[in-house]
Amino acid sequence: DPLPSVPAKAPKDIQVVAVSRADVNIAWKEPDDPNGIITKYRIYYTTERATDIDSNIKVEVPGTQRMHTIKDLEYNTTYYFRMTASNMVGEGPVSDVYPVITVVGIASRPKGFQCATTGHDSIQLSWDPAASSDKGRLISYILSYKSSAIYLEDGMETREEVLPVDNDSGYLLKNLRPGTTYHLTLTPSTEQGKGIPTETIVCQTSDFSKPVNVQARALQGQQIEVTWSPPLEARGIQQWLVRYYRATDPMGTAVPSEETKKVVPNLVEQGFYRYVISGLEPKTAYHIGVAASSGPAGGVSSYESIREPVTTLGLVPSAPKRFEASVRYDPGLRSASIDLNWLAPDTLRGSRIEEYRLLYRAVGPPDLVSSRTYTEVPLSHGRTSWTLPPNKVLFGAVYNFSLSAKNNEGYGDVISCQATVREAPPSMKPESFSVNTKSDTSVEVFALKPILTGRNGHITNTEVAYWPKNAIDGYGSKNFSVENSSAVIRHLNPSREYLFKVRAWNSAGPGPWSDVM
């Protein structure tokens, strides 16, 4: 075995900071090669950089310490600090030199920095009033805080707020996330710059309330639909967690829902949320519960569970196979239809197929969606194709189709597909076209996008053409966005009469001109 020896290296990560006009704080970590247990540390300091270490002032601290404060130093003086670590054998090598200046203008560390939870989204902070030596010099406090949970792709949520010096002993920190731990520091600031920050304190916001009106019902195809409403105080809720397990199993075997994110927007607009649990066993009872969450690694409310278990329905057909949609255009691109094709399910799960159920609707873009309700089409059991006719198809729209087969137990698993219809130039002129005089040299032109069936895609802008009446040349034009609905035409000749017309544009080109006004 090698003979015991002194520490091979000096303490590491040494930090020397002036914490007031006469005090310096030194922090460090144990050396990488201590060669045993560190019994003590020595801090050497002097006001002369090149002096021998033996002539320095020496302070010894126990080996368990990682920080020490040197007090009663001279104001506005440069000090040079070095450190060593010792074990049972002896003293190790000396560290590098760390200079620090005891600046007269630096603000002292605030004392008594504390926090208390006041709700699910706020924390009350308090600290002692500024020291008498700092009063009149402070210009602000800087509050820095970060959450322990990762909400953003680039790491922890970190923020900083500048508090006026009037907030000399307290501040209510608002708009926080529920059920989340926060790490906070407070730093005073003067005209000379930032002062000495406090030690970091930790505080956790309280959780929010549980969801209400939790209900569940069995759907066809071994599915259970769960609905609920948010609590009265729902701020901070980012996602929902659905828990379910067989009534014969202990609660600890609950299978967490994989889709723990906010649910379909159109159902939220009706004041409740909806989630469908799929892949369950037939004719089996399940316990269901819902909890609110502030996001990954964030706070979670306790689960609100349905009192009685919900039983799934019997064996129903599996989903149809190779369900595909293709768009068919007429030669002149005046209309389009969507052809659907599929094959019967592989697994009938019981008696033969009685019929199919097809659901469809336009799902985008938003200005081409007139309804969020699906249209239902019953189809006979022998069908393997169907066509959405031209009078039901809008150019530029995206359609969603869902298909399921039915036996004597009910409808089975659903299969879905989408079809995107390419845009065509608008076939109709803008609506509500008008021109109003604003001054003797300017007018305002107003126009709305064409009606739904004439847009043939997403309307991007409206073009205005204008010219003096009876003029051979002098044609002018201007575009305005559909969100603004109007444009002001300026610098007109007050002694001339002008004519105006408008047309709508999408990505495929312009539509027809309106009548001249």
UniProtKB/TrEMBL annotation:
<feature type="domain" description="Fibronectin type-III">
    <location>
        <begin position="210"/>
        <end position="315"/>
    </location>
</feature>
<keyword id="KW-1015">Disulfide bond</keyword>
<dbReference type="Pfam" id="PF00041">
    <property type="entry name" value="fn3"/>
</dbReference>
<feature type="domain" description="Fibronectin type-III">
    <location>
        <begin position="10"/>
        <end position="105"/>
    </location>
</feature>
<protein>
    <submittedName>
        <fullName>Protein-tyrosine-phosphatase</fullName>
    </submittedName>
</protein>
<feature type="domain" description="Fibronectin type-III">
    <location>
        <begin position="109"/>
        <end position="208"/>
    </location>
</feature>
<dbReference type="InterPro" id="IPR003961">
    <property type="entry name" value="FN3_dom"/>
</dbReference>
<keyword id="KW-0677">Repeat</keyword>
<keyword id="KW-0393">Immunoglobulin domain</keyword>
<feature type="domain" description="Fibronectin type-III">
    <location>
        <begin position="429"/>
        <end position="517"/>
    </location>
</feature>
<keyword id="KW-0732">Signal</keyword>
<dbReference type="InterPro" id="IPR036116">
    <property type="entry name" value="FN3_sf"/>
</dbReference>
<dbReference type="InterPro" id="IPR050964">
    <property type="entry name" value="Striated_Muscle_Regulatory"/>
</dbReference>
<feature type="domain" description="Fibronectin type-III">
    <location>
        <begin position="319"/>
        <end position="427"/>
    </location>
</feature>
<keyword id="KW-0325">Glycoprotein</keyword>
<dbReference type="InterPro" id="IPR013783">
    <property type="entry name" value="Ig-like_fold"/>
</dbReference>
